[in-house]
């Protein structure tokens, strides 16, 4: 390897899927989110692997990504929910995507696309987060139009769903109550969705009542915590990703690694970040365009240019994704999704604890 690369631990991913399945039990389905290039891990690798390991369904943000996922996962149910007016709704039908629908206007766009077979939709309602979804005053018209299109054979309403704000247990239970109210209004309009889903990683752990028929697991499935007060490993999940970068230059007290912000590495905003080279912790002093600069005392006789150094993640002691999130004053999701898609990625079959 002449540049940075990303190694994915297959055993860790399998462990996480199994952990989720045990948490949810046999009556709750697992929808695994592979949005944003599978949180920077590499969609083409992660999507088929999680289905092989026991996930029931997949989720992405947009139709274009859904079409790409369908190339590597031909059969599993696949939801795309962040829709735009100029999206290709016909492509969603052709590639058997399920769509998260939030407005009457989106229902109209589906009808205009004239799907040859009913397009499967998940009707989204706002339950307090205000991140799209039909609001309570819009429910009667929204559900009435959906029911008319279902009777006409244009759509099949499979699900009613929403997002949690994850700000408190009370807010999540309130959202659950609103979703149940929406379900009553939907039934009054003649709809009978097969399932309801509300929780993602955070809600599924903190408020079990919100698991309902299916949970959308995202960042925690990759071994990165959505919580401020617990690491993923505290919760029994293992980090999947390790970012490695080659040593490109060594001076008396400085090591340069071939990975920088042009490849998507965020720069720490506060002092104190350290990276281990071998067993030696070195201060991370700068993230430059194409290099990360480490400084400190080390024994150069065991180092050489081209040697790969774990810079972040599972095999980088003290430099987990969560640690990087702390150093850069953001969340683990943001640290990961910035990693450039052109960085080579591959699965490792090493044991989890190696």
UniProtKB/TrEMBL annotation:
<dbReference type="GO" id="GO:0030170">
    <property type="term" value="F:pyridoxal phosphate binding"/>
</dbReference>
<dbReference type="InterPro" id="IPR011079">
    <property type="entry name" value="Ala_racemase_C"/>
</dbReference>
<dbReference type="Pfam" id="PF01168">
    <property type="entry name" value="Ala_racemase_N"/>
</dbReference>
<feature type="modified residue" description="N6-(pyridoxal phosphate)lysine">
    <location>
        <position position="35"/>
    </location>
</feature>
<dbReference type="GO" id="GO:0005829">
    <property type="term" value="C:cytosol"/>
</dbReference>
<dbReference type="GO" id="GO:0008784">
    <property type="term" value="F:alanine racemase activity"/>
</dbReference>
<dbReference type="InterPro" id="IPR000821">
    <property type="entry name" value="Ala_racemase"/>
</dbReference>
<dbReference type="InterPro" id="IPR029066">
    <property type="entry name" value="PLP-binding_barrel"/>
</dbReference>
<dbReference type="GO" id="GO:0030632">
    <property type="term" value="P:D-alanine biosynthetic process"/>
</dbReference>
<dbReference type="InterPro" id="IPR020622">
    <property type="entry name" value="Ala_racemase_pyridoxalP-BS"/>
</dbReference>
<feature type="domain" description="Alanine racemase C-terminal">
    <location>
        <begin position="240"/>
        <end position="348"/>
    </location>
</feature>
<protein>
    <submittedName>
        <fullName>Alanine racemase-like protein</fullName>
    </submittedName>
</protein>
<keyword id="KW-0663">Pyridoxal phosphate</keyword>
<dbReference type="InterPro" id="IPR001608">
    <property type="entry name" value="Ala_racemase_N"/>
</dbReference>
<keyword id="KW-0413">Isomerase</keyword>
<dbReference type="InterPro" id="IPR009006">
    <property type="entry name" value="Ala_racemase/Decarboxylase_C"/>
</dbReference>
